[in-house]
Amino acid sequence: MLKGFKDFLLRGNIVDLAVAVVIGTAFTALVSSFTSSFINPLLAAAGGRDSANGLGFKIFSGNDETLVDVGGFINSVITFVITAAVVYFFIVVPMKKINERRDAGKEPEPEGVSEDIALLREIRDSLKSRPGGTTQL
């Protein structure tokens, strides 16, 4: 029972997923800090000097609930793209190469005979088993 559990835990997909979640979560915090410290001020500056909202606008003046925060959305998109790129290039690509190397060492499984060959063999064996059947075809 413990061997089955160990095999389940050490399967490539589970380990890859666990590593991706842990590293992705930690890296997301880092990227969020980067975008809020560096990208947000740049986006706010693009909104103009007089704009208190940065890159955004209020649908109704004086009502903070109607703020459309375009800069915040762009910030979230940049955070997502950077996080996805790092997870892909530093986790997915290396794991793919490791799996290819591991699979390259294995012998390929022999392919079964085609249906045509199997049918011809069946016909040959049937002819041999008939009374008066020949051993040469």
Automatic annotation (TrEMBL):
InterPro entries: Mechanosensitive_channel_CS (IPR019823), MS_channel (IPR001185), MSC/AndL (IPR037673), MscL_channel (IPR036019). It is a multi-pass membrane protein. Keywords: Cell membrane, Ion channel, Ion transport, Membrane, Transmembrane, Transmembrane helix, Transport. PROSITE patterns: MSCL. The keyword Glycosyltransferase does not apply. The keyword DNA-binding does not apply. It is found in: Cell membrane. One of its GO terms (cellular component) is plasma membrane. SUPFAM superfamilies: Gated mechanosensitive channel. One of its GO terms (molecular function) is mechanosensitive monoatomic ion channel activity. Channel that opens in response to stretch forces in the membrane lipid bilayer. May participate in the regulation of osmotic pressure changes within the cell. PANTHER family: LARGE-CONDUCTANCE MECHANOSENSITIVE CHANNEL (PTHR30266:SF2), MECHANOSENSITIVE CHANNEL MSCL (PTHR30266). This is Large-conductance mechanosensitive channel. It comes from Aeromicrobium yanjiei. The lineage of its organism: Bacteria, Bacillati, Actinomycetota, Actinomycetes, Propionibacteriales.
